[in-house]
Amino acid sequence: MSKKIFVFFPDGVGLRNFAFTQFKALGEQKGYEIVYWNNTVFSLKAALGYDEVKIENHSIHRFTPIYSRIRKHIELNVSQKKFNDDVYPTYKFPFSCNGIKNTVITLYTKFLIGFNSSEKGIVRIRKRINSLERSTGKYQYCKAQLQEHQPDLVFCTTQRATQSISALLAAKDLGIPTVAFVYSWDNVPKAMQVVETDYYFVWSDLMKSEVLKYYPFVNESQVIVTGTPQFEPHYDKSLLEKREDFFAQYGLDTTKKYICYSGDDETTSPLDHYYLEDLAHVVRSLNAKGKNLGIIYRKCPVDTTTRYDAVLEANTDIIAVLDPIWKPLGKQWNEILPTKEDLAMLHNVCAHSELVTNVCSSTVFDFLAQDKSCIYFNYEQPQLKKGIRDIGQNYKYVHFRSMPSQNAAVFCTDKKDLEHLVNQILEGKLSNVPDGKKWYEIVAGTTPTQASETIWSAIENCIKK
Q1: Among 29, 130, 321, 433, which residue has the fewest nearby CB atoms (within 10 Å)?
Q2: Nearest to 270 by CA among 174, 147, 91, 394
Q3: How many CB atoms lie within 10 A of CB 237?
Q4: pLDDT tens digit string along 189-244?
């Protein structure tokens, strides 16, 4: 009899990895019955014809977000003290004292942080969160679904969503094995491990060492290196369109060479539009010297700001806007969800661009997967003032310490150097690809084309245990 696997989407971030790649097909080839346990507003049944069990009760305990923030701050405090490193406070978001309610919550939060800032305190707060979530109607609701459908394992597609806590607790309380996939390359040092599961699947040996470093309650046997399906579409040649066909579809000029500008969210890079403007000036200058260049602007999929509009309107002759094919299915940022079509678009943007430019984005790896260089902007804009976040902070984060050398990306540390760096890459005289590939392997693992296959093998071993 085939084993039933609940692939659990507490939110939409896992859709591209586990609904739109070869992941499902490979599991079915191995004889698994795959049911998507779906807490999102996206219907996998309606859109893709997949078997799904919808979670209609989305009500976490009203104190869970508060205690989750307390947990995060305590973990960061412990890491700062334990590793004598002042990077950890930079992961915190400021408290709000706007109004009586926010002031009371802030005072209560700070009191509990101060009282529990130790590894024992972390355990207390985690137990408190679990107790709160077990008391909810959602816990009982999810428990009833599990009792009805009786999966052999629950595979949670991200470790960072509070919406997943009650569902995974219900599974554990019923004796169903649980797995959490650590979703992103920067998540572990940032104290974003919200859930506690039987096993954790991670991208690489680096990420495994980080999980064991930051979470002493996790045993080595619980952490399994699988890689990530995130980059598999870049190796799927069926997604590649002919240059003329792709250019015709999006109104691009076949006589031009294009540089991709990959936009960032407003929190990471609040002055991001000015870097796009700098690149536009460089392209105009190079074109005046005989080049024939254009820019493909691909925004951050969840960025709904209008901050780029003036730059785009002033440069319609050289900037082509190729918005990610994501769909807003609600009013919140986390209800803007990816589509399968976007995997093909990103594949072809990488394939048909000469290089990518951005502020500290993981798109460096998307382009490295296709042997393309990346320029990271790392200089201050003159518009920087008090209250606006300096993008230089991003490169001090722990995940950037995984770079084998500074040559793993091309850093532009002075606006005056940007034109030279772009031209050097275009002329084949500068590339971060050799060292970048080493970085890619450190972060994403040694077999980026086989992640889905490896995950299914790991799931099989977890069931056997």
Answers
A1: 29
A2: 394
A3: 7
A4: 999 999 999 999 999 999 999 999 999 999 999 999 999 999 999 999 999 999 99
Question: From CA 310, how far away is CA 276, in angstroms rounded?
Answer: 11
- Which fold, 4-60+136-227+448-464? Rossmann fold (3.40.50)
Query: Where exactly does CATH 3.40.50.2000 map onto the chain?
Result: 4-60+136-227+448-464, 234-444
CATH number of the 234-444 domain: 3.40.50.2000
Which strand ranges, in their side-by-side order, compose the sheet holding 223-225? Answer: 52-54, 33-38, 4-9, 153-156, 178-181, 199-202, 223-225
What was the pLDDT predicted at 334? 65
Instruction: Give pTM, 2 decimals.
Output: 0.95
Question: What pLDDT digit, counting tens, does each position of 167-181 carry?
Answer: 999 999 999 999 999
Residues in the chain: 465
Residue 382 tokens read as 């003159």
Low-confidence ranges of the chain (pLDDT < 50): none
Is 345 in contact with 250 (CB distance < 8 Å)?
A: no
